[in-house]
Fold these 2 entries.
Entry 1:
Amino acid sequence: MTKIIDCSMGEGGGSIVRISIALAALTNISLKLINIRAKRSNPGLRAQHLEAINAIQQLSGMSVEGARIGSQTVYIEEGFKPKDDALVNIKTAGSISLVSQAVLYYSFIQKRNIKLKIEGGATHGKWAPSIEYMENVTHAILKLMNKKIYTEHRKFGFFPKGGAEITIKYDKHENPLPLILSERGELEEIRGYSTASMSLKSRKVAERQLDSFIKKANPHVEVTPIIKYVDSISPGSGLTIVSQYSNGSKKGNFVPGEKHLSAERVGEICSTKWKKMEKGTGAIDVHAADQLIVPMALVEDNSEITADEISNHTRTNIELIQKFFQKTITIKKETNHYSLVIKDL
């Protein structure tokens, strides 16, 4: 029997495609996706969605029909010849973090090691987490669930040309643990990952971004600077701030550099986001909640988190998860955060 997912549900974005294909491959079911990104001004599949499908197809052996730019309908049949590695090529500045998200979900409870190599794409792009956020927030929190992920950077990519080269290794998951992060704890450390292309080194763009953040945010704990200049095919930069708390939780935010933004303005925008994040008493930030909801649903035992916010994106993902698994997912609004609990029915 083929499961049909209407991708116009809820927020209607590309995450519905990424999650659906990963869970269909993981559970070995046939799937039909309809109305893909139908609410967007440029509806249908884009390059990064195609490469996410491509990666899962390589790893699971599933057959796919209709996967092309602009397509709003895709058919997927279960696969029988899984592989342990995949290679994808993003010819745009599509987000590496978002493409790899599908593989993260597919690999999460696998009893085998999986490797994903991505050529092209952006490590620091618009509307997506940076590579530093992915490594130091998402992947770091997943270690609490006993999932280990390793990233190797060969090249970095910025908007508009991309051109990155990244390898991500997902260890087999022998003993998946539930995620319990209900208390934020005290702020212990802030790390500032300020990255820029080598062409911007003479202007000290990376240093200026982070200095501006520190000046505007004026945090009460010291900021550990991680300044990096990297080779890339187009100039660009990004600033990622990661806060670590006494109970092991982490929160972060990212601002990409843009042509019309000075390095100082990037730091200022990042400080505004950080101050808002610090006012929230959730153990994780709004973006991590969005990314962690699927891994939480894949483990057998109950998981519980608190998050600064629960976005429409996350609510859509919850609705989608319940189409694949029998889970009770409860959201409760507290004073300065939301609590979220996932239980088996």
Entry 2:
Amino acid sequence: MKKLHSSLLIVLLFLSVDVIAQYGSRGTTELGGTISYSSTTAVTNGTTATESTSLFNFLPYVGYFISDGLAVGLSPGINIVKLAGSKESVTNLMLFLVPGYTFGTKGNLFPFIEGLIGYTSLASKVDPLTGVGEMDLSGISYGARAGFRLLVGKSGLANVSAAYMMYTMNPKNATSRSGYNSLAINLGFSVFIGK
């Protein structure tokens, strides 16, 4: 009986090493992303506002390892924001090219670094800040993300990363950059499919 348990343990160990070896190797596809909803209510001098600002965020990701460790991915996304006191919502669309490198390790923790470059747009039928006219902002945005992916089960990956992004939200005919810079901590989940 002890021999059977030992044999099963050794087989499972070799199988898990094979799964770990697959992630990050040429021909592997990764599918994942994040989805979130938040509601924020302002408080001023101890008084809570009657309306909240709501944010829905959906940011999927698909990546393909073109060689061991080196991946190219696409990350489309959408944010829908309804500001407190406004009847209109603001829609933010994004499409990023995501080249990245995952460092090979002997364990189940994979450090990675990625660049992001792509198109972002922000649109609303009525400018939520002024209440007048349409809002139509867009531009090329870019940044970087670094973090770790932890193997969960056979083909799951829990992702923890920090990202710095420079979003460009220019009105038409702008001559210089307008937008915002963002530093964020990201949590996500993905799965990978070996070759």
